[in-house]
Fold this sequence. Notes:
Number of strands: 14
Number of helices: 2
Helix content: under 10%
CATH class: Mainly Beta
Distance between the termini: 18 Å
CATH architecture: Sandwich
Shape: globular
Radius of gyration: 16 Å
Strand content: 35-45%
Structural class: mainly beta
Order of helices and strands: EHEEEEEEEEHEEEEE
Largest sheet: 14 strands, mixed
Amino acid sequence: MPVLRVKKVVFDSAKPSVADVAAMFEREKIEFNPIAVINWKEYGYKPEVKFRIAHSAEEIYLQYVVKEEGVRATFGYDAGSKPYTDSCVEFFMIPSDKDSIYYNLEMNCIGHGTFAGGPDRKQRTRFGDEVISQIRRESTLGSEPFGERAGEQEWTLTIAIPKSIYSLSEFSGFSGRTVRGNFYKCGDEMPVPHYLSWHPIPIPSPNFHKPEHFGPMFFE
Length: 220
């Protein structure tokens, strides 16, 4: 799989609005990338999922677009939630080349979720609302939980992540560096559970916490 290039963009504000971030993706013609790898045959359902990514001096910007059969949103809060049981998108990344700490950002389809960091799945620092609240996000489905909706659903989630919240790692910046990460779509308790990834995960059973199978991303 080729290296994912992350374009560097400039805003008038260090913390642009989510609407400005969404407009930037269009203005800069940032390309989408598919989250389309089915790693486990027993979970063969494949919703249409794509993402795009950019960054500024201070932040990382993500946008996911999902089209799926049914949607689930039961968590309307961040710390302590289980977004992976809802219709969920995720971003895992190792920001530093000095250590093996990776971070997992997991957000359900209405933009509520968790953020944690550590060297493996068991040793995690789970950040509280004082950190997660710094992540600005907006979903086309709103922000209030609604349970389950049947039928074909399409939604977009746009996210702005301050680089400063990757606080367990030492790094001077992202520009000009290649880091490793992965992007996911899942839904553990949806009518049809599924586990899609951007970069392949060649292991026997579902587990996204596999930094050895992250893919390369070059930050311009």
